[in-house]
Amino acid sequence: MRCAVCGVGGAQLCASCRKRLPRLAPPLCDRCGAPTAWPVARCRECSGRRLSFASARAAVAYDDDVRRLVRAWKERGLRRLAAEAAEVVVGVVPSPSCGAVAFVPPDRGRSLERGHHPAERLARELGERWSLPVLTLIRRTRSVPRQRGLALALRRRNVAGAFGPASEAPRAVVLVDDVYTSGATAASAASALRKGGARRVEVVTFARVVR
Ligand SMILES: [Zn+2]
Ligand SMILES: [Zn+2]
User: Fold this and answer.
1) C-alpha 32 to ligand 2 mean position (Å)
2) Which residues are bridge partners to 175 per DSSP?
3) How far is the CA of 78 from the centre of ligand 1 (A)?
4) Which helix (H) or strand (E) covers residue 205, if one does?
């Protein structure tokens, strides 16, 4: 067994790489969780955007090491890493005051390729730690072309209306995903939760792209 980040033998994530993960600390944008120079209600990244979630928080910045870690977790299916990621999230992100955990549902084609679904694994690990039920509240209404490499405006158009409610949602829901990139997926999935009856959606991800 080798560390997914540095390759040293012994664990899927070695102690020194775990310690070095670029944890995100305040001040943050209150809405989208972007690191800011001082606390703000909305930041340059999210101001003027209609976001259907109340807040988004992530544990670590999506740098090259984290990218390697997430890739190993998602593409090589190293399940132990979902538990590692959950431990880091619980240490960094304040526990949400919500009634249930939801996750961004897998794209059918792609999840079959990998044989497991990273966002759901992370949601289950977090649900256990927060003592919250994990519910399937969101479904895909259509397949979304890969987001990778798309400009921000295209990403938004790409995922708009891609999700719908799968069942009635509790009043406040935590929405879990692995990486927050442009916020387009989170916003679209959160809006499905709102359609399902949620009044408040808090997004929590393991990593976040920091611009
Ligand atoms: Zn390492
Ligand atoms: Zn913001």
Assistant:
1) 4
2) 102, 203
3) 15
4) strand 200-208
Using pLDDT thresholds of 50, 70 and 90, give the confidence band for residue 151.
Answer: confident
pLDDT digits (tens, 9 = 90+) for 22-40: 999 999 999 999 999 999 9
Is the pLDDT at 115 greater than 60? The verdict is: no
Burial bucket for residue 106 (CB in 10 Å: 0-12, 13-18, 19+): middle
Mean pLDDT of 175-189: 95
Query: Can you tell me the mean pLDDT for 181-193?
Result: 95
| Number of the ligand closest to the Cα of 17 | 1
Q: Kindly give the distance from the C-alpha atom of residue 190 to the centroid of ligand 2, in angstroms, as a whole number.
A: 16
CA distance linking residue 171 with residue 200, whole number of Å: 6
Instruction: Tell me which amino acid residue 67 is.
Output: R
30 CA from centroid of ligand 2 (Å): 7
Q: Is the peptide bond before 27 cis (omega within 30 degrees of 0)?
A: yes
Q: Which residues sit with Cβ closer than 5 angstroms to ligand 1, an ion?
A: 3, 5-6, 14, 17
12 C-alpha to center of ligand 1: Å? 8
Q: Characterise 145 by phi-psi region: left (phi > 0), alpha (psi -120 to 50), beta (else).
A: beta
CA of 15 to the centre of ligand 1 (A): 7
Distance CA 123, CA 160 (A): 23
Rg over alpha carbons for the chain, rounded to the nearest Å, is 16
